[in-house]
Amino acid sequence: MPKIVFIEPRAPNLHIFSQFPLPRLGTLLLGTMMKERGWDVEVFVEELREIRFEAVREADLVGVSTITSTAPRAYRLADKIRSLGRPVIMGGPHVTFLADEALDHADFVIRGEGEIPLMAFIDAWEGDWDFRRVPNLSFHAASGNIHNPRRPMLPELDALPFPDLSLLKPDRKIKLGRKTIPILTSRGCPFDCSFCSVTGMFGKKFRFRSTESIIRELRNYNSRRNIIFFYDDNFTANRERTKALMEAMIRENFKFLWTTQVRTDISRDIELVKLMKRAGCHTLYIGFESVNPRSLEAMKKKQTVDEIREAAKVLRRHKIRIHGMFIFGFDDDDWQTIKATVKFAKKARLTSTQFLILTPLPGSEWYEKISAENRITFRDWALYDAHHVVFQPARFTLFDLQRAQIFGHRKFYSLVELAKRFVRGWWLDCAIAVYARKLNRMWNKKNKTFLKAVDLLRPRPGAKITVDYREDSAL
């Protein structure tokens, strides 16, 4: 039986979900499809399971998936695997947009959605090795790297199998609470925010699975023992479709608690909000991004500050918790923007927040703009996790933009705010605040070298230096 190993590299640094790792579904979907095809499959999500290189040595093919921040780790792994004589095929958002870079470390790269291209690649692998017919594939040739045309996006998501979570085999066991199950119900986003690479990866057309397919998958899990995380980038982009799914979940009498990502426009449809609450919605992750109207316009967010305020009020009124996500560093942002944003987050009584630093991710419009203006300061991809400043802002020094993020988290999770939550009896909010304060202290400690580096740049903001601050374990 031929064997394939899939690897998802660990994140290079701490982030808010470090203690609650969740695998991306792409690797699991591909692993499931290869298992159904008759291959022996092993999956190593490093946040959950250490790589066993004896399994890698036994493999006929090794797949490595990467986002931008995990790319350095992915490339080191690919180099080591190839040194063992095993061929490597890479995929994921980062290599979709930088395939030539990836081919310095891999034998093959699949760009964009990987399900159909991987099956076509395996057809060639098991057949005549004519890879020129494989859509989305990039590979080496005597004349240089070949980049086959990308195929249209997969139109019918119901054609995909349910991900086989048994492939994970985690070393880390969840001892308390409910287990989180990742489920994808849609792909694509009709919006095209300038800082986002989702549309470049999955397209602007919103494609979604049928309600029947999603319900069948949910039936596989005990609704009293599991939490569902719907992995969609915009779960409510089609409100009527979402209502139909909520009504079906209510009819099934599921007891799942679940979370997902939405936009502020959800507040326009109170019927939908009520249905989501009845169906078990626990927390919504919302990209508020900014309370600076000029920044919202520049990022093409297509939402207003009034809509942001209304969304917070409506969801709080219906007892749905909010994880608010904000971005600092747009060209119209200044310290007034930072203070106003933090003030809003506290006044809106959000359950939790992330104050992220604008990051020029390959595949985004912002990346192209900043690259053309020669404003990128650090090109170590491990820093591209939205927690490190990597470009020269318009109205901040690098150090001050980094300080703005630290300021935001310190103010929102201050002892005063923690005391307010305690007095109100918001025990979950208190627990999150304690965890966030601990995480912030750990982040500052682990990133002392990086913070010193950006501090040194204050006298000459345009300077470029390279700092390897990471504490990455050896392969």
Explain how this protein is built.
- The protein is an alpha/beta fold.
- The protein has two domains: 3-145, Rossmann fold (3-Layer(aba) Sandwich); 174-456, tm_1862 like domain (pyruvate-formate lyase- activating enzyme, Alpha-Beta Horseshoe).
- 38% of the residues lie in helices and 15% in strands.
- The strands form three sheets. It has a seven-stranded mixed β-sheet with strand order 2-1-3-4-5-6-7, with helices on both faces. The chain has a six-stranded parallel β-sheet with strand order 8-11-12-13-14-15. A two-stranded antiparallel sheet has the order 9-10.
- α1 links the parallel β1 and β2.
- The longest helix is centred in the last third of the chain and has 20 residues, at 427-446.
- The two termini are 28 Å apart.
- Residues 460-475 have low confidence and may be disordered.
CATH topology type of the largest domain: pyruvate-formate lyase- activating enzyme
The rounded Rg comes to 22 Å
Shape: globular
Number of helices: 18
Indicate the low-confidence ranges by residue numbers.
Answer: 460-475
Helix content: 25-40%
Count the domains.
2
Annotated CATH homologous superfamily of the largest domain: tm_1862 like domain
The main sheet comes to:
7 strands, mixed
